[in-house]
Amino acid sequence: MNASIYLHVPFCKHRCAYCDFNTYAGQESMIPAYVSALIKEIEFVGRQSARLPEPPTIGTVFFGGGTPSLLSGTQFASVMDALRSTFTFSATLEATIEANPGTISPQKLNAIRKAGINRISFGAQSANTQELRMLEREHDFFTVIEAVSTARKAGFDNLNLDLIYGLPEQTLESWQTTVKRVLDLQPEHISAYALTLEHGTPFGKWAQRGLLPLPDPDLAADMYEWTMDHLEANGYEQYEISNWAVNRGFETADRQMPPHACRHNLQYWRSLPYLGFGAGAHGYAGGYRYSNALRVKTYIDRLTADSQSLSAEFPLSPAAVNHHKQALQDDMSDYMLNTLRLVKAGVADADFRSRFGSGLLEVYPKEIGELVRAGLLEIKTSEVSKTSEVYRLTKRGRLLGNKVFVELVK
Ligand code: SF4
After folding, report:
1. CA 198, CA 178: separation in Å to the nearest integer?
2. Nearest atom, ligand 1, residue 14 CA
3. Which of 25, 57, 106, 119 has most Cβ atoms within 10 angstroms of its Cβ?
4. Residue 172: what pLDDT?
5. Domain residue limits, the chain
């Protein structure tokens, strides 16, 4: 079995007003105990996995947050050592950390690189200082430029910059400047997400009370369309609704994707197994979808020395508080929602059939026809098999992705 590993680091120096991730400010004193708990959880699941008829080979590792870069180089090394001595890593392991530009130093990045982490993703968000202040981000774009230069010197040759568009009061010109300044930094990968006003966040509450000038959806759509055209013209291939990778570099076995596509996220988008470690982490393996306790202290408490002797089915650790076996229908819906996000590769009828035993038109006879007639889905011949049909989002479908996804969830 091929699997990925996600490790959640739920600490931030400051909680940004738009963020609804499972992360906490002011709890950094718990980081050492948290890292010990992470290692215990890795060892617990590792023992279960060693008893499987076919233990997983790990193709990708991803430290997400929160702000993983708040961990020290030594802490990263101890987690990577625990993973390496517990699981079998693929020879072409992709190991990513998310980092806030203001939380790194040459020493830390050298240590992280030495620990075996070979991809870095910086939360740049915008090149406009006022927009960054509005998002309550603590860095400015100069810090991003420095962070990229430091990462390059430390040997990171696979680098992503995360951006957000559709901000209140953001103009098309200001967004275009952000994208152009980001292109000057020559990242291998760019993610651009539309701002969403999440329920329960300060942004969500201010918007409800009319205190936040709501982003104009038409303007956000213009920004997205311009981004698709501009990045394509500059050598970036859009392989997912919100993700682009440079269309050059080394050869990979995955002919459908540009070489620097994020292989970790591809595992999610292809509905393939991943193990989740850490507070609030989610996982999908062994037929289960599961999630861990959200709060840092609860997570640490559940991974005491005593809990190591508990027995549970792979991949559930003592930290898992929710789990369910996936029904076939859930798996099919998840597969459609995830895989249709791959805008070039789409969903191949042959892949769907070999995974679920039925063709797409047997499972979605009405829905697919309607989406094609509405101009949201298109049918192509598979570039891989040359015979099977591939269903993928049109440009309009990328803009209205949610409308497509709602139709396909049964
Ligand atoms: S730094 Fe990132 S994860 Fe942390 S609060 Fe801000 S947006 Fe959320």
Report:
1. 24
2. 5
3. 119
4. 97
5. 2-269, 347-408
pTM over cut 0.90: yes
Protein residue whose Cα sits closest to atom 8 of ligand 1: 19
Q: What is the mean pLDDT of residues 308-335?
A: 92
Residues enclosing ligand 1, CB less than 6 A?
A: 12, 15-16, 19, 21, 23, 65-67, 100, 123
Cα of 339 vs centre of ligand 1, distance in Å, is: 27
Question: Ligand 1 centre from 186 Cα, in Å?
Answer: 24
Taking the centre of ligand 1 as the mean of its atom positions, its distance from the CA of residue 67, in whole angstroms, is 7
Q: Say yes or no to pLDDT of 383 above 70.
A: no
pLDDT in tens, 70-92: 999 999 999 999 999 999 999 99
The correct answer on CATH 1.10.10.60 for the domain covering 347-408 is no
CA of 241 to the centre of ligand 1 (A): 22
With the most atoms of ligand 1 within 8 angstroms of its CB, the residue from 11, 20, 67, 134 to mutate is: 67
For helices 365-373 and 401-408, the axis angle rounded to 10 degrees is 160
Fold of 2-269: TIM Barrel (3.20.20)
- State yes or no: pLDDT of 249 exceeds 70: no
Average pLDDT, the chain: 93
